[in-house]
Every structure is written in structure tokens, then in C-alpha cells.
Design brief:
By secondary structure, this protein is mostly helical. It has one domain. It is built from five helices and no strands.
Amino acid sequence: MHIDLMTAAAATIQEAPRESTIVQAIWLAAIIMFVVSWISTGFTAKRIENLHNPTYSKAFLSHILIGPFSLGTFMMFALYFEAPLLLAFLVAYSIVPIVIYKIVFSCAMWREAALIWIVVFLVQSAVGYGLILAGILSLAAFTGG
């Protein structure tokens, strides 16, 4: 009788995801998003003709810079200037990346930097949608739904 209870308890313990598994999945998704964004930035920059020596190392540098500068801009607009959150989000995650792309890639005009941002935004949206769908499906497998 005790063996039946123990096997049932062991089966339920193995089916439920642990916190460490969820955290590992979130970190893996963040790394996948970074790598895909980096490669799409470098690929797009190499296809634009008005850029001075576009490389994947410049794309890497731009994504390293975009994270903290966008977060800092969001905090500054939201907390210090007390702007609406939507405005702070739009400024931090649309204008700041365009400015960083213009500086890092030495764009002649703003439209090249905006084009890089649009392509990277679309690629990030598609990959993010796929990762969210994969996460939902894997959690549904754990819950039996």
C-alpha cells in the first residue's frame, strides 16, 4: 500500500517543473534572443550600402549598448520625468536603439539606422512569438493540458 502512494507521489513530483528549470528556460530564451538580434543586425548592416565598414563586432557592440541605455532611458523618463509608461517605453526602445545604431555603424542618414531597427524589431518579434509559443506548449505538457 505504501509503495502505491510513493509511486504516485514520485510521478507527480517528476511531472511538475522545478523553479530552476523555468529559470534556465528563461535564460536560454534571453540568450537566443540576443544571438538572433546580433546576427540579424550584422546581416542587415552588411546589406545597406551607405554604412562604413559594417561588421558583426559592431552589431555585438550595439546590442551590448542598447540594453543598459534603453533601460536607463526608460527609468529616467518613467521615474524622473514622470512621463506616461507608454511614452517612456516608446522612447527607450525605439529612439535609443536608432541613435545607438547611427553612432555605432556611422550611418550617413537616420534612415539607415531606422531600417536596421525595423528589421531587428521584426525579427525579434517573430522569434519572441515562437519562444513564447514553445514555452506555453512545454508548460501545457507538464500540466497535462
